[in-house]
Amino acid sequence: MKTIKLVFLVLLSTSHSMAQESSKTNEKKFSFNGSVDVYYRANITAPNDTNQIAPATSFADTAGFSLGMGNIISTYEKGKVGAVADFVFGPRGEAASSTVLNQLFAFYKISKNTTLTFGKFNTFLGYEVIAPTGNFNYSTSYLFSNGPFSHTGLKADITISEDFSLMLGVFNQTDVTEFNPDGSYGIGVQLGYKDQFLNLLYDKAGLGFEIDYTGGFDASEAFYIGINAAYADNEGEGFYGVDIYPQYALSETFSLGLRGEYFERRSELIDDNPSVLAFTLTGSYTVEDLIIKPELRLDSASESIFIDTDVMPSKSLGAFVLAAIYKF
Fold this sequence. Notes:
328 residues, mainly beta, 16-stranded antiparallel β-barrel, 18 strands, 11% helix, globular
């Protein structure tokens, strides 16, 4: 009789544990976060009475007091499945996405090590991202602006081991994210090893072929160095470049970061391909959830693509930016 009671208690305990585990597995999780950013920009070596005098990068390129974007991200997850709706409003969002839907995708964790994602998501290439909260520098690089912003398609993220990861994906034409205009598709591959990533994208109808390395390392507890290098080609037209991102934490609330970039646009039709050497020094001061970023930027080109204070052609442009980013 005691044995029967013991077996019954064990079964009851196991059933209760399985019910608790099942309850945890099917637990509903909802998160809501985002950011707001605004900035002031002034040319140092050029006039400020026009918004056309700025580096040929994506954001922080208008003079005076200007708006960045509002970003609202909502995530819902239940068990092995979930969805993300990422909305952007304002000039920075409009430059990055053709609609307010920066990202819109569903995901399915088919196993402990594999997740399928279906929909529109930001690109896996490059060091910098659209949301200013994900970058140290406020203005963006030439590599970021000339590479892809987003993809719409299906991808699989696979954890191979503690050190290795793999992403495989098939997408519509790059940055044509709401529909497929011509029936062509691109493929993407990312191989990761200890936070170092080798990225490959082939999209004949769009960007063509791009290979990209993104990574970095901690030189010390306070000193980090990020690296991004990319090469793109589409039937003789493309670009290549290298970015270095040394960042040093002077205190818990203030850090300094420098982006040094060499970028060259290449074409088989041109003998002398234009290039740019750019340096961006950014400070980052944190007050609770507010980040204040003063920034000095100098772009030096191989050709006279800017103008100076006398409205004469110039190979260089200096500018100052002060940005405020609030995270919630």
